[in-house]
Design brief:
Strand order of the largest sheet: 1-2-3-4
Distance between the termini: 62 Å
Helix content: 55-70%
Oligomer: single chain
Structural class: alpha+beta
Order of helices and strands: HHHEEHHHHEEHHH
């Protein structure tokens, strides 16, 4: 009966865990629609081969994404280290020594020098019994950290793709603005030419001429700024996407004008949004990790029990080292009970609790930020669609005005200056419409990003990441 009680006591102690219960308040919010499942390759819904190419390049070459993957590998290695702490450690050892004993040694009764050899070889054992769950909680913390790093990788992937797509659209808008401004510059140049001729024949004064020249210089400045804006977007995109320095230095970017997005988008927040954002899941796993580490810190208040052992051979002659008479073994235990550490253990536990508090507040802040981003993304999508229609109608009106002005000018009903004004207004409307068009495209990206970009929590997430990561350029390891 005593043996059974002892076995039961050891089993009970070894199944202990000192981590506190993790209470996560339920997040209450009102869902507005059914959940929409977005494609993880959502950018293909823009039906743009150039965009698909640069996203694939980014998923291969981007440094930030590769860093996120390396950090995930680091977390996996730390998990392996924590797992090994649950098992006994075995170490092989071998040694050889030769010694000379002094004649005056108190243990030397021969009145002469003694020479001796000592050869040993064996297998050593060391093992700390996990009495209070310290190593199991450390393993739980490492597992949560590994899972959080997987979510971080997914968040980095989504952020990268979103940034690439938006930079691509901004760059396309800059290219179109340059083209329209070039046409506008030609129109203002013609207008100034007309004003100059009118000034020379005396039909207008110097004031009107200088006013026209100022307008021309303003458009020239806008065109120069448009070139700089294009270069800024191009630089940012190339840095995210390319690994070829010549590409970064010299090459332009092909693009296709945005026209539509082919896949369904959320109109309101659904009930599963907390499972669709990797940053929320990462923050929750880090909270779980810190909760485990509180349990680890608490075990320092309690005693620890370690076992050591050795099985091997010892002989004074190398030839007889592994013979039967040379066998040797020993086994021992080490019991350690903390008595007084001047508050060190208490403060370590307190520090672990404070780290858990910080992780909880980070989780809470991540939730608030996520819901704020969702609200803004939905509003921006709605307003961008309205603005798209507004500038589309404005463009149609300016096109009609320009068409009528062209007819009137050909019939001699209006002077050239009015015709050129209509042309300038049309080109200005084209710039505004193009900007509204790409603002709507970027608003679509913001909605997709806010809703997790097709991410779903999956038990096979690590395998999916491993499969996706095969496209990463890790050739620097060779």
């Amino acid at each position: 009966m005593r043996n059974l009680l002892l076995i039961f006591l050891v089993f009970f102690i070894s199944s202990c865990s000192l981590k506190p219960k993790l209470n996560i308040p339920q997040t209450q919010y009102t869902s507005k629609e059914d959940n929409i499942s977005l494609s993880k390759e959502w950018w293909k819904g823009f039906n743009d081969a150039n965009l698909n190419t640069i996203v694939n390049q980014a998923l291969k070459n981007n440094t930030d994404l590769r860093i996120a993957y390396v950090r995930m590998e680091q977390a996996a290695a730390q998990f392996g280290i924590s797992l090994s702490d649950l098992f006994p450690k075995f170490d092989g050892s071998a040694s050889g020594a030769r010694a000379k004993t002094s004649i005056n040694d108190p243990n030397n009764q021969t009145n002469r020098f003694i020479y001796g050899n000592d050869f040993t070889m064996g297998l050593g054992l060391s093992y700390e019994i996990d009495l209070w769950g310290k190593y199991r909680d450390s393993l739980g913390a490492a597992r949560a950290a590994l899972r959080a790093s997987e979510f971080d990788y997914e968040a980095a992937r989504l952020s990268l793709i979103s940034n690439v797509v938006q930079l691509y659209f901004n760059l396309a808008n800059a290219y179109e603005a340059m083209d329209i401004l070039k046409q506008t510059l030609d129109a203002y140049t013609q207008t100034y030419g007309v004003k100059l001729m009118q000034y020379e024949v005396g039909t207008i004064g110097e004031y009107e001429l200088e006013q026209s020249r100022a307008e021309l210089q303003s458009v020239k400045a806008q065109y120069t700024s448009a070139i700089e804006t294009k270069e800024n977007y191009l630089k940012a995109l190339k840095i995210l996407v390319s690994s070829d320095f010549d590409d970064i230095l010299y090459k332009e970017q092909d693009y296709t004008k945005f026209s539509a997005y082919a896949l369904a988008l959320p109109e309101g927040i659904g009930s599963e949004i907390l499972l669709q954002r990797p940053d929320i899941n990462a923050a929750l796993k880090r909270l779980t990790q810190q909760n485990y580490l509180v349990g680890v810190a608490r075990t320092a208040f309690l005693p620890s029990l370690s076992l050591t052992g050795l099985f091997g051979f010892e002989s004074n002659d190398l030839d007889t080292l592994i013979k039967g008479g040379s066998k040797t073994w020993n086994i021992g235990g080490n019991f350690l009970m903390p008595i007084f550490h001047w508050g060190e253990i208490y403060q370590n536990v307190n520090l672990a609790k404070l780290s858990k508090d910080e992780a909880f507040l980070n989780y809470e802040n991540t939730l608030r930020t996520a819901f704020g981003e969702i609200r803004l993304a939905l509003v921006q999508r709605k307003t961008s669609m309205q603005n798209y229609e507004n500038y589309k109608n404005l463009l149609q009106a300016q096109e009609k005005i320009y068409e009528l002005a062209s007819i009137r000018y050909e019939n001699g009903s209006i002077p050239l200056i009015e015709y050129l004004d209509a042309r300038r207004n049309l080109l200005s409307a084209k710039i505004s419409f193009a900007s509204a068009n790409y603002a709507m495209a970027n608003a679509i990206v913001e909605v997709i990003k806010a809703f997790g970009g097709g991410f779903e929590v999956d038990e096979n997430l690590s395998k999916e990441i491993e499969e996706d990561s095969k496209t990463l350029d890790m050739s620097f390891r060779k």
